[in-house]
Amino acid sequence: MSAAPLRVVIVGGVAGGMSAATRLRRLDESARITVYERGPEVSYANCGLPYYVGGVIAEREQLLLQTPESLHRRFRLDVHVRHEVVRIDTARRTVEVVDLVSGRRTTEEYDRLVLATGARPRRDEPQGALTARSLRTVEDADAIDAALRPGLPVVVVGGGYTGLEAVENLVARGAAVTLVQRGPQLLSPLDAEMAAPLLAEVRRQGVDVRLGVEVATTGADSVTLSNGTTVPAELLVEASGVMPETQLAHAAGIRIGETGGISVDALCRTSAPDVFAVGDGVEKSDLVGGGAALVTMAGLANRHGRMVADLIAGREESARPALGTGIVQAFGIAAAKTGWSERQLRDAGRDHYVVHVHPGSHAGYYPGAETLSMKLLADPATDRILGAQIIGRDGVDKRIDVVATAMQAGVPAAGLAHLELAYAPQFGAAKDAVNILGYVAENVRTGTTPTVQWHELDDALREGASLIDVRSVEEHANGAIPGAVNVPLDELRDRLGELPDGPLVVHCQVGLRGHIATRLLRQHGRDVRNLDGGYRTWRDATAVDG
Question: N or C: which end of the chain has fewer CB within 10 A?
């Protein structure tokens, strides 16, 4: 007598849930797999929604990767849309389901339950005469698309990944966009000096950016901000972030973690027997800090869904700690990060050192090279990489992926110098941008070239250091740090006697000539440090402050 088929119920039919369902079917043809999704669509390209609004993705159907019918034909999955699981009984191993069209309630038994309930907008869409939408579902995208017309005043709330993508695509449709960001900068996962160039470009594109304020109230054709100012608006797009969708799990007595996400172990098992959880509503283990973290990335949701299917099918697997690697592009500028920011490290009181470099995206002599701004954070005791941020117009994605891979593999910061990376002049340089990060990191950590950070410069000068600009006379004339004395690098040996007594801070445009000057002056017995990242990093950072 054959065993009864395994009954697997999956709550949520997008990234994590559908990855679990389709992977499990490939491993177990006999399992009875039922998926409940409260929305009207399953397996849709959530990350593509802003680009459908902007017209980059021309056909709505391109967002719909699968339908309940196609999933049944190919995988024999029993997929129900507009069905909401409203109750879980972990003792009886049942779920209560409501058909949102008919109102009919049914009870389904399970042997294994997978929660992929995702996340919900951090703030509810404001009620009132003003049309307001988030940008998380195909229905949201349809509503925004239908409302748009050239010149339509739109307020986007939130300057993170989704908010910036929405802004770019709304501008492409001719809307007059105001971006409202609660914090003091765009892209809060990045440090201020790294996000600054993107802010400048967004404003250059005609977007009215309001920092440090929130939407207080909405009217029929305007919103009032927390500082009392009024902004015209006929459409509001809510993109101020998400929070885990945990009500269902909490009501079932499943443990919720300190971050507010569903608590799971390394196998994505919840506190309830045979109940797994994956996706944006679940805590992840943080690779840098070692604790729990909320990391809402589609790649992690898909990987964890696949892993849970493996476990249900009897395979051995476990989830790796997360780095939170992410990237966004707006108006041609890409910004990416992995691991922790300097702000996080400071808040945690964690010792670290910092490297800023500004190499080319490929060989400078080959046409089209763009400048990258790169930041690396590492542990001074172990040289473990703690985080990285990169911004630029070309080559950002592959560099952040290399650093993220190095972090997972345990490559130290100085070890980046030894990575063998693909080279041809149109793709990189003989010393790739990632290699340069490694070279500079080694110089900083070993004390070969002591540095001072942009935010430490004022204190150094107040304590008696003199600032020497070793750029050319022309560069100095085109923009200089107040109080800097210009002594071009090529004249430095001959003008040593002109330098002020006491400690020195030297700088150039991006740090390389400052490094050379630091080495020269140290060998002449001077107390000297290089301004990390040079004038360019200082300029970007102080543009934010000012």
Answer: N
